[in-house]
Specification:
heterodimer; A: 176 residues; Aconitase, domain 4; seven-stranded mixed beta sheet; 7 strands; globular; B: alpha/beta; Aconitase, domain 3; five-stranded parallel beta sheet; 18 strands
Chain lengths: 176, 428
């Protein structure tokens, strides 16, 4: 995970639930590269075609509420988002997003200091997000060490892979 | 004093998570590694397989603690769904997972867990569906997780959890005729709102909750998900033990909140005189008294009696009592989807399939079906649906403009009869 994340901002409102990020009709799709063409189809329809890698989502409260579908952060990761920042997140989305290695940062008040296409500068360890255009900034409590470790590993898959590799005896092949 | 010593008692969630974490006690905010008692996957588990392999895992920590229940597209309605089912069947064979509820023995995953005794008091249960909270009705911590996280659970048998603060919802009073547990949870949602319990546990307490049956407790715990809660629960009692008697899949370790437990806050609800409630578009917390909405003559195009929230045999009997001797309104499609195949068969033996279909309803096989705009029951953009389900977000049943009103099974049937939102007490 980079110490400083900078990118162009897409703004979103309150309560953007996972149906708005990936509609229920796409849930049988599991290829992230197809999912990314459907991402935010209801919540922000122009995002899929106009976003570029490194762009940052800045949402109001309760981003990612509703279903547990990991398709939502999968699609956003495939679209190359550099970070997802919100006044607050729904809990399963937050876990899924962190587990996939996406810097996911809760910063109350952040939505109010950004307009679309402003540039955000996130200093992860210092715990600040700044609007490069206006100079306005908000601070956020640093992520717990547990989650920093997860992001530094690149996500949960890599973290567990290292853990299992460290104790091969626990993963003997299954006898038929 | 240890670092986690506390000056007050523990909530039910804190008790259960302390056990899962192998600790004497825990405090909110503490991160624990919780040992999982039961892991459940539905179709989303197909996305667990690749990360499981990428982690280098080759076997599941305890195959007798894993349930697979396919429910979203049953039988498969598209090639994509068929592929998801195929991935799960192959994975179950490969890593030897015997508890697979496949087509013909299927049901909505949470109902499968409940009616087969897979979650018992004191458990930590996780599932790849957001409404896993429903199993908190057993006096357990039951939470939804994503498929990558499930891969780690299958490999390790545990996951990290931040111990949540607890919101208590304390309920007194008597639910009147035609007023149900669904109306109670909608009323609570109107007060707690969709973010009021985010990251938190919800503990239902009070004399009204003690009087609720297990199916009713399943309904109110189910919709703690809509409050943003990590889990929602009811303390176990003799009803819990009776329900699980003979079906519990593993041993119970019932836990109870201490009398001096510290709650983040307590929401007091008195249901005496409470009318039926309805959640209006486009949020489950946009709750109003149903009689007020009925006065506005909200016409409907479709009614849906189904979902993990309200499609148990008790719900379908409740609807049948309203429908008996009446007909579905001309121009209204009425879809009834029981929560499991066992309930479907019970409906057959009680004559409920005849009753519903003679009145003009479509009685489908068990599935999540219309609730999430899946394999059937999609509405058109300018249409309105009365539903016993749990979500009415934009696009939930297909197009983002579609309008969904959430209500009890009795009110759903009343709407199907009148062709507009109607007070079920007028059909007593």
């Amino acid at each position: 995970m980079r110490e400083i994340i900078e990118g162009r901002v897409w703004t979103l409102g309150r309560d953007v639930d996972t149906d708005q990020i990936i509609s229920g009709k796409y849930l049988t799709i599991i290829d992230p590269n197809i999912l990314k063409t459907k991402v935010l189809e209801i919540g922000l329809p122009e995002f899929a075609s106009q976003s570029k890698p490194g762009d940052i989502l800045v949402a109001d409260a309760n981003f990612g509420s509703g279903s547990s579908r990991e398709h939502a952060p999968q699609a956003l990761r495939a679209a190359g988002v550099g970070a997802i920042v919100a006044d607050s997140f729904a809990r399963i989305f937050f876990r899924n997003s962190i587990n996939l290695g996406i810097p996911t940062i809760e910063a109350p008040g952040v939505r109010a200091i950004f307009d679309r296409f402003d540039v955000a500068r996130i200093e992860v360890r210092r715990g600040t997000i700044t609007n490069v255009r206006t100079g306005a900034s908000v601070s956020f409590p640093p992520l717990p060490q547990h989650l920093i470790d997860l992001l530094e590993a690149g996500g949960l898959v890599e973290k567990v892979r290292r853990e299992l590799a460290d104790r091969p005896s626990s993963q003997d092949p299954v006898s038929p | 004093m240890s670092a986690t010593s506390r000056g007050h008692g523990a909530t039910l969630a804190e008790k259960i998570l302390a056990r899962a974490g192998g600790k004497d006690s825990v405090v909110p905010g503490e991160i624990i590694e919780g040992r999982v008692d039961l892991a459940m996957m539905h179709e989303q588990g197909a996305q667990t397989v690749q990360p499981f392999h990428e982690m280098g895992a080759t076997r599941v920590w305890d195959p007798d603690r894993v349930v697979i229940a396919i429910d979203h597209w049953v039988p498969a309605s598209t090639e994509g769904a068929a592929v998801l089912h195929r991935i799960l069947r192959k994975f179950a064979d490969e890593v030897h997972l015997p508890h697979f509820y496949d087509v013909g023995n299927h049901g909505i995953c949470h109902q499968i867990l409940a009616e087969n005794g897979w979650v018992v008091p004191g458990d930590l249960a996780v599932g790849t569906d957001s409404h896993t909270n429903m199993l908190g009705a057993m006096g357990a911590v039951a939470a939804g997780i994503g498929p990558t996280e499930m891969a780690a659970v299958l490999a390790l048998g545990r996951l990290w959890l931040k111990v949540p603060t607890t919101v208590r919802i304390n309920v007194r009073g008597k639910l009147g005729p035609g007023v149900t547990a669904k109306d109670l949870v909608l009323r609570a949602l109107g007060e707690v709102k969709t973010t009021g319990a985010t990251y938190k546990a919800v503990e239902w307490t009070g004399p009204t909750i003690e009087r609720l049956s297990m199916p009713e407790r399943l309904t109110i715990c189910n919709m703690t998900t809509e409050m943003g809660a990590k889990c929602g629960m009811v303390a176990p009692d003799s009803k819990t033990r009776d329900y699980l008697s003979g079906i519990a899949k593993h041993s119970m370790h019932p836990m109870y909140a201490d009398p001096d437990a510290q709650y983040e806050r307590t929401v007091e609800i008195d249901v005496d005189g409470m009318p039926p409630m309805v959640a209006c578009p486009y949020s489950p917390d946009n709750v109003r008294p149903l009689p007020d909405v009925a006065r506005e003559h909200v016409r409907i195009d479709q009614a849906f009696l189904g979902s993990c929230t309200n499609a148990r045999i008790e719900d379908l009997r409740e609807g049948a009592a309203v429908l008996k001797g009446r007909r579905v309104h001309a121009g209204v499609r009425f879809i009834v989807s029981p929560a499991s195949t066992a309930i479907y068969r019970q409906c057959l033996s009680e004559g409920l399939v005849d009753l519903y279909t003679e009145a003009g309803a479509v009685f489908t096989n068990s599935s999540c079906s219309a609730c999430f705009g899946g394999n059937m029951g999609i509405i058109a953009p300018d249409e309105v649906c009365a539903s016993s389900s749990n979500r009415n977000f934009p696009g939930r049943m297909g197009p983002k403009e579609g309008r969904i009103y959430l209500m009890s099974p009795a009110a759903t049937v009343a709407a199907a009869i009148r062709g507009e939102i109607a007070d079920p007490r007028e059909y007593a």
